[in-house]
Amino acid sequence: MSVPFLSVWGRLLPAAALLATALAAAALLGLAFGSSGASWSLLRALWPGTEGADPVASAIIWEIRLPRVVLAAVAGGALALGGLVFQALLRNPLSEPYILGISGGAAVGAIVGMLAGLSPFPGVSLSAFAGSLATLTLVLTLSGGRSALRSDSLLLGGVMMNAFCGALIMFFISLSPDPQVRNILFWLMGDLSLAGRDQLSLLWLVLPGVIVVALLARPMNLLLMGEETAASMGVNVRAVSLALLVVTSFMVSIVVSQAGLIGFVGLVIPHIFRLLFGPDHRLLVPACLLGGGAYLIVCDLAARGLPSAGEMPVGIVTALVGAPLFIFLLWRSRR
Amino acid sequence: MKAVKVSGLSLRYGSKEILRNVSFCVGEGEFFLVIGPNGSGKTSLLKAIAGLATPSAGAIEVLGKCRTQWTRREFSRQVAVVSQHVPDDFPFRVAETVLMGRSPHLGLLQGETAEDRRLAEEAMAFTGLSHLAGRRLDQLSGGERQLVFIARAICQAPRVLILDEPTASLDPAHQIRILDLVENLRSRQKVTVVMISHDLNTAALYGDRLLLLCRGEVAGLGAPSEVLTWQQLEKIYGCLMLVDESALGGSPRVTPVPEKYRLRGAGGSGEPRFP
Predict the structure, then answer these.
(1) ipTM
(2) How many domains does chain A contain in total?
């Protein structure tokens, strides 16, 4: 029985190396494939010192594809982490920022911020954050506080919140003559095709959240033992839960205001990695971060590659994969 | 120095008074049992000692230091708690779970050392869980799961062990196994044990001293033979109990008397035939 006693680092490093490779491979694929098919020669523009050699290739890679790939990687990683955190804190394997309506709240907040003419940062980021916190509070209150979190009322509250936020999004967009508010598909199904270099500067805001979640990986393990047992083992349950909920909502808000509503990443990725690596959050946090990024890049590739009249929003692909998994998990939990 | 010293403790949830002016001491290395009817405040008392509930009045000292002076982390290195309910969906393996007992001793990013793993192995051997080390907790029986959580508490290397009815809903074999384990821990490693039990006979067999709680107040405190008298028990539990000496010697044995036996003796006058 030596397997359970492998040290954390001993298991973490190979897994992280593997997933980092997968992420890099996905990123290269994402850079090579475009609307005009694969073109590996374009990748040469990534090489330092080649600027100006081929201005078209350089522009395609640096201005169009790289921002899109980076946005997909950051959004996928952050959304997967969001799902992981909500599943641990709410002790509900089906919870995820999109399903609980947190993403929807952030989208509404972002649109309201844009309509009010706020700057992307800090204005719109903060209004999206406020929207996500408002829906989080509402859903938690509706489901009966933290004591009844196993119950389906949590999911039901999320579903209703999503319907309501969807209606609000359409309402605000139909009111708005402002082109800055982007199109309705962007907000409802998530879309990475509008990614530009100026957006990437905002993605750094996700980093503090990632650090906080990584530092709190062990307390998240202990919280699964129950709040009182965790507290008796030195975990400040209230502070840890609050910190995790707040930073996760913030990460999700940043992602939503840059990429719209991309659902189910936070459901699919943590479940896959729990099957592969077991329940230890010290492994799951880095795995979800890297794997979520790779996953969303691949989903975006699929969205670009699938035959369609125009660009297909990446949210369609993630929902096509994620919603059936949700239904399967729900069905299994009721047996 | 006393392991636990509670003086004038009161505790209320909202307007409901759960504990009123409770005072007692637990000596170091003592097996101290808290008994009392449902709703008498036993669990709240243990939570207050463990720092999981805030008293409205009174003082609690643990290992010579006022409860409020302990940091959460320092406290968790000295005091381990096994609660009544163990989650049945805890997805970790036995060895991982026991090893988590080392958490209070580790820094934020520090991994477990070889010494921590040795302690976890020791705790598993002590509780007879070594052969289950690689099994997932959600695949174990309730009794085995409770044992794992006790092994986890042992791995925490506490000086005081607080247990809330660890043997509730377990079969007699598992009950005895767990209680013997706790007794061994006390006698070999001088760990102070504060435990709630619903089973008065368990309390009599294992307890050095008992605290009998009734409606949040101390109704009895002392050796089992002093606390477990039929008059006292009838007053507190409202149920007639036969108290005689256990065949194992020394300790009292308590048998709640079923109605059909109650009218026997004394010419059927309704008087109990004992003491």
Answers:
(1) 0.88
(2) 1
Q: Kindly state the tokens that stand for B242.
A: 């036969």
For residue A48, is it within any domain? no
Separation between Cα atoms, residue A292 and residue A270, nearest integer Å: 9
Which residues have a Cβ under 8 Å from the Cβ of A209 and sit 6 or more positions away?
A78, A81, A247, A248, A250, A251
For residue A10, tell me if it sits in a domain: no
Domain that holds residue A186: 56-334
Q: What are phi and psi of B244, to 5 degrees?
A: -130, -170
Amino acid B109: pLDDT: 78
Yes or no, beta carbons of A7 and B111 under 8 Å apart: yes
* A27 alpha carbon, distance to own chain's centre: 17
Q: Which fold has domain B2-91+157-228?
A: Rossmann fold (3.40.50)
Nearest to B112 among A7, A221, A229 (CB): A7
Residue A71 located in a structural domain: yes
pLDDT at B264 over 60: no
For chain A, residues with pLDDT lower than 70 are 1-6, 35-38, 49-53, 144-151, 309, 335
Whether B111 and chain A come into contact, CB under 8 Å, resolves to: yes
Assigned domain for A23 exists: no
Q: Report how far apart, in Å, the C-alpha atoms of A38 and of each of A26, B48, B248 are.
A: 13, 66, 84
User: Domain residues of chain B, as ranges?
Assistant: 2-91+157-228, 229-275
CATH of the domain at A146: 1.10.3470.10
- Angstroms from B134 CA to nearest CA on chain A: 6
Q: How confident is the model at residue B72 (pLDDT cuts 50, 70, 90)?
A: very high
Are B74 and B64 in contact, with CB atoms under 8 Å apart? no
Is A317 exposed, middle or buried, given 0-12, 13-18 or 19+ CB atoms closer than 10 A?
Answer: buried
